[in-house]
Amino acid sequence: MKIDHLGIATKSITESLKFWGDALGLENVHTEVVEEQKVRVAMLPIGESRVELLEPTSDDSPISKFLEKRGGGIHHIAVEVDNIATALQKLKDAGMQLIDETPRVGAEGCLVAFVHPKSANGVLLELVQNINK
Question: What one-character-per-residue DSSP string does 97-131 give?
Answer without folding.
Answer: -BS-SS-EE-GGG-EEEEE-GGGTTT--EEEEE-T
